[in-house]
TrEMBL record:
Residues 546-577, 701-729 are annotated as: Disordered. This is DnaJ homolog subfamily C member 16. It comes from the Eukaryota. It is a single-pass type IV membrane protein.
């Protein structure tokens, strides 16, 4: 052990990060980072094929790790190593630490089978890097699934799964599965992006979605894992009962249909992977020839039950458009066969992507490709014209010519751009020969002068134009710009939203039970924080309600009974001892002295609530007013005052003239003009915006009788009555609904009466 430690220290001592990066000891962090990027780009194993490029890249990474950390850099400058300290009491610990570091990075002393020099070369072609993964692997996962391994140096568990991984990787790659390897030590960003926080980890990638493998690492489990990644509706089981319906869907789906006949009871994984890769172009069915109920289908198409057979059906379901048979059906054979039969003979243009594939933009004079488009409609009325066009297409299809059709009512913009004389072709089919000039939608075209009916004359005219087009490209003399086609087969928004919701729920469910808890911590923290705030609010509200119930003022009846025992002369002394401090409401008298400060120059947003009273009703109304407005005293923008009607009647009547709808003012000939009683009126005055809101008192019986507008009658009650008389209770009832009016005032739903200026208070 001592010799090993000394040897490892000697190796570590020869390592100079400054020399590796080619910088001086006084270099700044910017210079070090610049040198690291330049060397890393030069010696990256994917770009530099030199045998020692990988070791050189590791040294560059280690050197940058030391020099980019100020503490490690200072330790290296002081002691010649990037350790924490060189205190003698920690000397033995550091000897082992250096031994471990030298063993990890240089490894030439021990030659373990999992070190960087002797790492299995079979994984090198599968190594993934972050940019490569994002730009190529993720888009490619929409065509084939990927099985990815996360590994690292010094991963003892990785050694045990290597034999199984090699076997499964070779087998699945031959079937069309993508294989990837991520080294967590060199690609930490990618490993973190994938959510892999430990090694070894196995995961699947399909349609850009990552799924982790959680079972025992054996061949059968890995194959089943990849198969479970695929959608379940890729391949339909076909028998004698449903094959006609399956093949007849070509018109609805606008796709050729593929039938695979095999003697395996389950659909082979190779066929499922092929169906996933070509799902946008073809529909797939599987016939188990050993099953009872498939004899008629096998005999109708003369199938050899001992040889796998693949058939493609297009517009005619009674005979296949193409057939391939092979005892050992390989992926390359299937791809070549399907790539030549991806489209119908006369495909319908249902979206812009299909239009671009069938009618590509010309790249050169020799690569001209023309499209013959049948503009027709749906229904039996147009069936004869379509069949004649299909027959013509079958007889004249070639590489530079594509035949397609389109429904005018589903793509009206496309049809209107090509058919200049709409009346001539209304209710009829038309044929257009076009050539796409660029990707912006510009085309050159020629429309057949007469409507297409499928007669022999129509066939001769179209054939003659196609022959002329071979030698004279200028035949397509008209030009126009086409808008993008509508996607006719796109699912509805509600269905797309439902699928997205189901995928999100599935992801959350999988994350809850299988994902690393480190990933779940933010979600759990958010959930528990929301629950804590919710229950905390409920508990605080409950205690607050109970406290308010204890401190609430007495009820109106109790207050009335208690106040009735006191006369007007004793109110000033006894009210202070009877009313608690918490229920105190500060109400000031509005006089000519404080008129400007309390009203005219009141701050913006502040309102002064003024009670109108007389000397005889002052005591009773103030008590009731305080009880009604007490719950609103918490607002700093509300001020409370009272105005003596005996002193300032003229000022009040001037204001009420601007609110005649709410409180009509009698003229001077009214015999009750001087007797009109305004006690109990409440004004909410906004001094800044020059408007006021008006509360009109109500009359009600002593026992809660009906209420009516108080100003509909004139009160001539004698002044000087005792507050305990029935008249005092009637006066109190004037403010019976003031609290509801205050709520509407704060809501801003009361009617506002504007005045040009505030009158003087004399």
């Amino acid at each position: 052990l001592l010799l090993a430690a000394l040897g490892a220290q000697a190796v570590a001592g020869d390592f100079d990060p400054y020399r590796v990066l080619g910088v001086g000891r006084s270099s700044s962090q910017a210079d070090i980072k610049k040198a690291y990027k330049r060397l890393a780009r030069e010696w990256h194993p994917d770009k530099n094929k030199d045998p020692g490029a990988e070791d050189k890249f590791i040294q560059i990474s280690k050197a940058y790790e030391i020099l980019s950390n100020e503490e490690k850099r200072a330790n290296f400058d002081r002691y010649g190593d990037a350790g924490e300290s060189q205190v003698y009491s920690q000397h033995q610990h550091r000897q082992f630490h250096h031994f471990h570091e030298g063993f990890y990075f240089d490894e030439s002393f021990f030659h373990f089978p999992f070190n960087s020099e002797r790492r299995d070369t079979s994984d090198e072609k599968y190594l993934l890097h972050f940019s490569h993964y994002v730009n190529e692997i993720v888009p490619d996962s929409f065509k084939k699934p990927y099985l990815i391994k996360i590994t690292s140096d010094w991963c003892f568990s990785c050694i045990h799964l290597e034999p199984v991984w090699k076997e499964v990787a070779q087998e699945l790659e031959a079937l069309g599965v993508g294989i990837g390897v991520v080294h967590a030590g060199y690609e930490r960003r990618l490993a973190h992006h994938l959510g892999a926080h430990s090694t070894p980890s196995l995961l699947g990638l399909i349609n850009g979605k990552v799924t982790f493998f959680h079972n025992a690492v054996v061949r059968e489990n890995l194959r089943q894992f990849v198969e479970n990644l695929l959608p379940g509706n890729l391949v339909e089981k076909i028998t004698d009962k449903n094959y006609v319906h399956f093949l007849s869907n070509w018109k609805k789906e606008n796709k050729p249909h593929v039938l695979l006949f095999d003697h395996m009871p389950v659909v082979p994984l190779l066929y499922k992977l092929t169906a996933f890769a070509y799902r946008d172009y073809l529909s797939f069915g599987y016939v188990y020839v050993g099953l009872r109920g498939a004899e008629q289908l096998s005999s109708q198409y003369n199938i050899n039950v001992y040889t796998p057979t693949m058939m493609i059906f297009k517009e005619h379901i009674d005979r296949p458009a193409d057939v391939v048979q092979a005892r050992d059906m390989k992926k390359q054979l299937i791809d070549d066969f399907l790539s030549q039969n991806k489209f119908l003979v006369v495909a319908r243009l249902t979206n812009q992507r299909l239009f671009q594939e069938l009618c590509p933009v010309k790249k050169s004079h020799r690569q001209r490709k023309h499209c013959v488009v049948l503009l027709t409609g749906e229904g039996e009325k147009f069936a004869e014209a379509y069949e004649a066009f299909l027959t013509f297409a079958v007889a004249n299809t070639r590489d530079t010519l594509k035949f397609v059709h389109i429904y005018n009512d589903r793509q009206p913009e496309f049809a209107d751009a090509l058919l200049l004389d709409e009346e001539k072709y209304r209710g009829k089919s038309a044929v257009v020969i076009l050539e796409r000039r660029n990707n912006a939608g510009k085309i050159s075209y020629k429309t057949l002068e007469e409507a297409w009916q499928g007669s022999k004359e129509d066939n001769f005219i179209l054939l003659d134009l196609l022959d002329q087009l071979r030698t004279d490209p200028g035949l397509l003399s008209l030009e126009t710009v086409l808008a993008d086609l509508n996607d006719e087969l796109a699912p509805m928004f509600l269905i797309r939203w439902l699928y997205s919701t189901l995928d999100y729920i599935s992801d959350c469910w999988d994350s809850l039970f299988h994902s690393n808890w480190r990933e779940m911590m933010p979600l759990l923290s958010l959930l528990f924080s929301a629950l804590f705030i919710l229950f905390g609010t409920v508990i605080v509200q409950a205690f607050s309600d109970s406290s308010d119930a204890r401190d609430s003022p007495p009820s109106e009846k109790e207050e009335t009974a208690a106040k009735a025992e006191k006369n007007d002369t004793s109110f000033g002394k006894e009210s202070n001892s009877r009313i608690p401090k918490k229920g105190f409401v500060e109400v000031t008298e509005l006089t000519d002295i404080n008129y400007n400060s309390n009203l005219v120059r009141l701050r913006p947003g502040h309102i002064n609530v003024v009670l109108i009273l007389s000397n005889s009703t002052k005591t009773v109304l103030l008590q009731k007013f305080a009880l009604e407005v007490y719950t609103f005293t918490g607002s700093s923008s509300l001020h409370f005052s009272f105005l003596s009607l005996d002193k300032h009647r003229e000022w009040l009547e001037y204001l009420l003239e601007f609110a005649q709808d709410a409180a009509p003012i009698p003229n001077q000939y009214d015999k009750h003009f001087l007797e009109r009683d305004y006690t109990g009126y409440v004004l909410a005055l906004n001094g800044h915006k020059k408007y006021f809101c008006l509360f009109k008192p109500h009359r009600s019986g002593d026992e809660g009788g009906t209420s009516e507008d108080y100003d509909s009658s004139l009160h001539t009650e004698a002044r000087g009555k005792s507050s305990c008389s029935p008249g005092s209770r009637s006066i109190k009832n004037k403010l019976h609904k003031l609290s509801f009016w205050m709520e509407r005032l704060l809501e801003g739903s009361l009617q506002r009466f504007y005045i040009p200026s505030w009158p003087a208070l004399d």
